[in-house]
Amino acid sequence: MGGSVMENRKTATMKDVAALADVSIATVSRFLNGNLDRMSSTTAAKIKDAIEKLNYVPNSAARQMITKASKMVAVVVANIDDYFSTELFKGVSSILEANNYTGVLFDTDSNPERERQLIQLVNDHTYDGLILQPLTESAATIEADMKRDIPIVVVDRELIHSPWTQVVTNNYEVAKSTTSHFMAAGYTHVVVLTSKISMASTREERYAGIKAAASHVDVLEVSEESYNHTQVHQKLVKLITETTEKTLVFALKERWLLEFIPSLIVQGYIDHDQATATAFSDTSTARNIEPRLQLISQDPYLMGASAAEVLVDQLVSHRRPTQDKIIIPATLR
Amino acid sequence: MGGSVMENRKTATMKDVAALADVSIATVSRFLNGNLDRMSSTTAAKIKDAIEKLNYVPNSAARQMITKASKMVAVVVANIDDYFSTELFKGVSSILEANNYTGVLFDTDSNPERERQLIQLVNDHTYDGLILQPLTESAATIEADMKRDIPIVVVDRELIHSPWTQVVTNNYEVAKSTTSHFMAAGYTHVVVLTSKISMASTREERYAGIKAAASHVDVLEVSEESYNHTQVHQKLVKLITETTEKTLVFALKERWLLEFIPSLIVQGYIDHDQATATAFSDTSTARNIEPRLQLISQDPYLMGASAAEVLVDQLVSHRRPTQDKIIIPATLR
DNA sequence: CTGTTAGCGCGTTCAC
DNA sequence: GTGAACGCGCTAACAG
């Protein structure tokens, strides 16, 4: 029983199928491509039989060479450990599936060098399109590596001079309005908790939004890879307690909220009176931990789905990229 | 400026490069494959020039058709939203990269039907190998769809009658020893917090391990997709308080710990005296939230790396799959 | 050191 | 309804 699969030494080709079914290779091809109407049902049955008997599986490389299409779309994200990236991919996939494409996920791991490699890889293989959550800020770098001319949609982070459609969050506006909201509640001192701001356009925008609304802003930058938890914790405590103003700790990314805020809550520093916290947050984890927190929710799934819709449209219509910017708003709730 | 990439109407082929460089197509092929030693540096330079001028990019489909290899390995995981799956992928990638392969990530989204589709997709395309975190329990189902004969390594969940190498955690043992550990501390009542146990072999093993050590076990099954947070919360409270025994809440998956334990801590139900909690936990998030928790840490990265090593070994040696079972132990700490 | 040639497996005109 | 034959872009002998 087990292992019957392995019986065929060489993988069968269309020729083998044709021979066994006693038809021509062209007929087999027609069968495979669903042109059943131009075929007697007898031959169709014979072919079907032969395919099963031989365990025949079409060679996609050969097909791609002819059709110049793979029905696969590369999705290159910044970090698959981020819920944002994975949820984005799920959104992408849902639309892609519905249109008979398959999403293939690649992870740049927040490494610009790796991003280059992956873009080259995508360039070198027959992917029909690319959805990219970029690390780079400049479209030029990407254009230099993507010599092949396939449709591209950029998500989440904005690119300078992008010739492609972009799908982004209203980072600046929502950061600003959120800050205003807390200002109105008396939180005049804002501590921004973030990875290196200059590393991503989203962070820059969020920071700019906060600064536009707040009067007193401190920044605490935490290294993505390595940080001293205790040290960051102490700095936060200091920033909260050394002023008489009411303090809002504003995490630019959910991860930092999850890492540092719970202990501050347990220890009573975040009491929702003298100090409170908010964050850009993609999952419901933070809310479950402390339901009283008001957080900014993005919609990565919708962003992915939107990006995929744009891409699919270009794929089927062969239209040139529109340089639209699609904004999926985030909301405080 | 922008768009210089788009200037070439049809993508150039090797023939074009050969013509422009005034050499034969074979020489270009040699150049591309790094056989520079068998070539005058003059011609090499000419070819290099031509390639750049023409923006030539080799057609991987054509190459795959000849070499029957893509240097790509498909990694099919159960759920990219789980840190376990993504970290596994990172471990896989690290080894793959080092051996000049690229990992390509696919997400079954915990959907068996989708798993089938993806396995067929992998089967239909030229992936050199497959690393699978399976949903299915039986190897036969997979064998039926994977007609092509490429090396496969199974990770995390065990398969019945697997003809492939498996890389797994010592779920039973560590669940048992952990339970014993807490029993010794007086926690004689164990509440198991889990998704449907029968859905995954890992969960079954963990549950069996707990039962083997505990005297009084209650099970609280939570639906992956939809659950009433308040209701689960209340059930937990009831289970903890309705007995005089000391209670250990044992989450079979980090997510459930994150979802329900923090509020129990805040409300004082989990006081590390009358009641405490533990979990299989892959990230450090839970530890940061409550450092006093003792949790079971798996090592998904190492599991991925191990799986990839086995796969690469089979890839380069063309050895048949060994039916080994590789165990990466988890530890309580 | 370099060119010629024969396929790889399949889709697609054409004919019949 | 069905088949023969060409070509997709490339690699791998084999010549020279």
UniProtKB/TrEMBL annotation, chains A, B:
Pfam families for this protein: LacI, Peripla_BP_4
Matches recorded under CDD domains: HTH_LacI (cd01392)
Molecular function GO labels: DNA-binding transcription factor activity; transcription cis-regulatory region binding
Record's keyword annotation contains Cell membrane: no
Keyword tags: DNA-binding, Transcription, Transcription regulation
Residue ranges of every copy of the HTH lacI-type domain listed in the record: 12-67
Protein name: Transcriptional regulator
Native organism: Secundilactobacillus kimchicus JCM 15530
Source species taxonomy: Bacteria, Bacillati, Bacillota, Bacilli, Lactobacillales
